[in-house]
Design brief:
Elements lengths: L1 H10 L3 H38 L1 E19 L3 E11 L4 E4 L8 H9 L2 E8 H5 L1 H4 L7 E9 L4
Parallel strand pairs: 3-5
Antiparallel strand pairs: 1-2, 1-4, 2-3, 4-5
Length: 151
Protein backbone atom coordinates (compact mmCIF):
# COMPACT_ATOMS: atom_id res chain seq x y z
CA UNK A 1 0.00 0.00 0.00
CA UNK A 2 2.91 2.34 0.63
CA UNK A 3 3.89 2.14 -3.04
CA UNK A 4 0.38 3.15 -4.14
CA UNK A 5 0.32 6.15 -1.73
CA UNK A 6 3.73 7.34 -2.97
CA UNK A 7 2.59 7.01 -6.57
CA UNK A 8 -0.65 8.89 -5.78
CA UNK A 9 1.22 11.78 -4.06
CA UNK A 10 3.71 12.14 -6.91
CA UNK A 11 0.96 12.53 -9.52
CA UNK A 12 -0.58 15.57 -7.78
CA UNK A 13 0.91 18.95 -8.59
CA UNK A 14 1.52 21.58 -6.00
CA UNK A 15 -0.57 24.76 -6.23
CA UNK A 16 2.59 26.65 -7.29
CA UNK A 17 3.24 24.26 -10.18
CA UNK A 18 -0.39 24.43 -11.29
CA UNK A 19 -0.22 28.24 -11.23
CA UNK A 20 3.02 28.20 -13.29
CA UNK A 21 1.41 25.89 -15.84
CA UNK A 22 -1.64 28.15 -16.08
CA UNK A 23 0.51 31.28 -16.57
CA UNK A 24 2.53 29.50 -19.25
CA UNK A 25 -0.62 28.33 -21.06
CA UNK A 26 -2.13 31.85 -21.07
CA UNK A 27 1.15 33.42 -22.20
CA UNK A 28 1.45 30.90 -25.01
CA UNK A 29 -2.18 31.48 -26.06
CA UNK A 30 -1.76 35.28 -26.09
CA UNK A 31 1.50 35.02 -28.06
CA UNK A 32 -0.18 32.88 -30.72
CA UNK A 33 -3.14 35.30 -30.84
CA UNK A 34 -0.88 38.34 -31.27
CA UNK A 35 1.21 36.58 -33.92
CA UNK A 36 -1.96 35.64 -35.80
CA UNK A 37 -3.20 39.23 -35.71
CA UNK A 38 0.15 40.51 -36.99
CA UNK A 39 0.19 37.99 -39.84
CA UNK A 40 -3.42 38.66 -40.86
CA UNK A 41 -3.86 42.36 -40.12
CA UNK A 42 -0.26 43.52 -40.64
CA UNK A 43 -0.16 43.50 -44.45
CA UNK A 44 -3.60 45.15 -44.64
CA UNK A 45 -2.50 47.91 -42.25
CA UNK A 46 0.74 48.54 -44.18
CA UNK A 47 -1.13 48.73 -47.50
CA UNK A 48 -3.77 51.08 -46.08
CA UNK A 49 -1.11 53.39 -44.60
CA UNK A 50 0.98 53.32 -47.79
CA UNK A 51 -1.93 54.52 -49.94
CA UNK A 52 -1.83 57.89 -48.18
CA UNK A 53 1.84 58.18 -47.14
CA UNK A 54 4.58 58.10 -49.79
CA UNK A 55 8.34 58.59 -49.64
CA UNK A 56 10.83 59.05 -52.49
CA UNK A 57 13.76 56.74 -53.03
CA UNK A 58 16.46 57.04 -55.70
CA UNK A 59 17.45 53.86 -57.49
CA UNK A 60 19.66 52.83 -60.40
CA UNK A 61 17.39 50.94 -62.80
CA UNK A 62 18.98 48.01 -64.63
CA UNK A 63 15.87 46.64 -66.39
CA UNK A 64 12.09 46.54 -66.55
CA UNK A 65 9.51 44.16 -67.93
CA UNK A 66 5.77 44.54 -68.48
CA UNK A 67 3.49 41.67 -67.62
CA UNK A 68 0.40 40.45 -65.84
CA UNK A 69 -0.05 39.62 -62.20
CA UNK A 70 -2.89 37.60 -60.77
CA UNK A 71 -4.56 36.69 -57.52
CA UNK A 72 -7.38 34.39 -56.66
CA UNK A 73 -9.77 34.68 -53.79
CA UNK A 74 -13.33 33.88 -54.86
CA UNK A 75 -12.54 33.82 -58.50
CA UNK A 76 -9.57 35.20 -60.32
CA UNK A 77 -8.28 38.69 -60.99
CA UNK A 78 -5.44 39.81 -63.24
CA UNK A 79 -3.88 43.21 -63.71
CA UNK A 80 -1.04 44.74 -65.69
CA UNK A 81 2.18 45.72 -64.01
CA UNK A 82 5.80 46.61 -64.69
CA UNK A 83 8.50 44.78 -62.75
CA UNK A 84 11.52 47.05 -62.24
CA UNK A 85 15.01 45.68 -61.52
CA UNK A 86 17.48 47.97 -59.74
CA UNK A 87 21.06 47.56 -58.61
CA UNK A 88 20.55 49.27 -55.26
CA UNK A 89 16.85 49.03 -54.31
CA UNK A 90 15.99 45.46 -55.26
CA UNK A 91 12.92 44.70 -57.35
CA UNK A 92 10.02 47.16 -57.42
CA UNK A 93 6.56 46.77 -58.97
CA UNK A 94 4.59 49.51 -60.70
CA UNK A 95 0.89 48.71 -61.15
CA UNK A 96 -0.74 52.06 -60.37
CA UNK A 97 -1.89 53.58 -63.68
CA UNK A 98 -0.64 50.59 -65.67
CA UNK A 99 -2.93 48.85 -68.16
CA UNK A 100 -2.50 46.42 -71.01
CA UNK A 101 -2.13 49.19 -73.59
CA UNK A 102 0.63 51.17 -71.80
CA UNK A 103 2.60 48.58 -69.80
CA UNK A 104 5.10 47.71 -72.57
CA UNK A 105 5.84 51.38 -73.37
CA UNK A 106 6.42 52.20 -69.70
CA UNK A 107 8.60 49.11 -69.30
CA UNK A 108 10.65 50.20 -72.33
CA UNK A 109 11.05 53.71 -70.86
CA UNK A 110 12.34 52.28 -67.58
CA UNK A 111 14.43 49.52 -69.21
CA UNK A 112 16.72 52.16 -70.73
CA UNK A 113 18.15 52.34 -67.24
CA UNK A 114 19.75 55.10 -65.25
CA UNK A 115 18.83 56.92 -62.07
CA UNK A 116 15.14 57.20 -61.22
CA UNK A 117 13.18 58.57 -58.29
CA UNK A 118 10.36 56.29 -57.14
CA UNK A 119 7.51 57.00 -54.75
CA UNK A 120 6.80 54.00 -52.53
CA UNK A 121 4.78 53.63 -49.35
CA UNK A 122 6.31 55.03 -46.17
CA UNK A 123 5.44 51.94 -44.12
CA UNK A 124 6.86 49.64 -46.79
CA UNK A 125 10.11 51.62 -46.82
CA UNK A 126 10.34 51.47 -43.02
CA UNK A 127 9.79 47.70 -43.06
CA UNK A 128 12.19 46.84 -45.94
CA UNK A 129 14.44 45.02 -43.44
CA UNK A 130 11.51 42.64 -42.89
CA UNK A 131 9.88 42.48 -46.32
CA UNK A 132 13.01 42.02 -48.47
CA UNK A 133 14.10 38.70 -46.94
CA UNK A 134 10.63 37.18 -47.39
CA UNK A 135 10.32 38.33 -51.00
CA UNK A 136 7.66 41.04 -50.67
CA UNK A 137 8.10 43.53 -53.51
CA UNK A 138 7.41 47.23 -52.81
CA UNK A 139 4.71 48.88 -54.89
CA UNK A 140 5.66 52.03 -56.81
CA UNK A 141 3.09 54.83 -56.90
CA UNK A 142 4.99 57.16 -59.27
CA UNK A 143 8.42 57.55 -60.87
CA UNK A 144 10.59 60.18 -62.51
CA UNK A 145 13.87 59.89 -64.42
CA UNK A 146 16.72 61.74 -62.72
CA UNK A 147 19.62 61.18 -65.14
CA UNK A 148 21.96 58.63 -66.70
CA UNK A 149 21.45 55.64 -68.88
CA UNK A 150 21.86 55.36 -72.63
CA UNK A 151 19.32 57.31 -74.67
Amino acid sequence: MEGAEALDRSSHKSPQQSRKNLVFAWTFFLAILVLGLVVVAGPWMVTSYDKEHHVSIECNVTGAEGGLSSASARGSATWSQVSISTSDCGTLVLSSGINQSNRDAIAAELAVGGEFSFEIGAATQSLRWLTDPIGMTPAVWAYQKINGGPE
